[in-house]
Amino acid sequence: MINIVICDDELSYQEIMNFKIRQCMQNVFDMEYRIVCFNKLSDLKKHIEKNKTDIIFLDIMVNDENAMDWSIKNIKSKYTQIIFMTAFPQCAYNISESNCCYYLVKSRIDEENLTRALKKALQKNTKKDPNMTLIKSGNKNYIINYQDIYYIETFNNNLTIHLQDMDDITIYSTLKDYADKLPPNFLRCHKCYMVNMNHISSYEPHKFIITSGEMIPIPPKKYKDIINTYKNYLINL
User: Fold this and answer.
1) Mean pLDDT over residues 191-211, rounded?
2) CB–CB of 6/14 below 8 Å?
3) Number of CB atoms found within 10 A of residue 225's CB
C-alpha cells in the first residue's frame, strides 16, 4: 500500500490533484494506494506523526506560510518523499535545503510530468527498504516486496514472478541475470525455477512444496546438494 498525501489550501486544486494522481496510479502504476488531503500544515503534521506516509504532494505556500521552510523543520523521515508544487516558482528559493524529491509547476502538471514525479518518488522510496523493488512489466510499474515472492520461473527469457496476495507478474529477463538482484533466501533449485526458501513448507524426493501449495521440481541428480543447501539455510537463520 502506497500512502499519498496532498496538502494544498485550495480545495478545488486538491480535487484536481486527487483526480490526476488516481488516474496516473491506475493507468501507469498497478499497485494499491491511498490518498488523503489536508489544507493546513498543522493537520498534515498530526497525520505524518501517526501514519506511515510515502509521498507528500505539498504546495509551497499553504495559508501564506512557506511549506518548504516548514518541511525542513517538521518532516524528519528520510522515508517520506516530498513532491513540491507551486504556481509561483520564485517561492522555491530554498529548495536545495529541503528534502525535495521532485518539483512541479502547477500550470505544467500533465500526465507525463506527474508520472515522472511519482516514478522518482517510488524509486527513492523503495531504496529505503532493501526488500522493496520497483518492477516494470509492459506499460505498468509494480512495487513488490521480495519476501512476498513465492517462486520465479523462466520460459524463453521471460520470467514469471509468483507473488503472495498479488497476480503474477511477467518480465523480460533471464533467470541468471535476475538472480543477481535477489536476497540470499532465494535458491536456484532447477534451471527453470528459483524458490524463496522462506516459503518452503516441506520437501520430498525431487520437489519442494511451498506455502501456496504448489510444487517446485528439483532435478534428481542435484537433489541431495539442493536439500543440503536448504538445510544449511534453516540452520543459519
Assistant:
1) 95
2) yes
3) 11
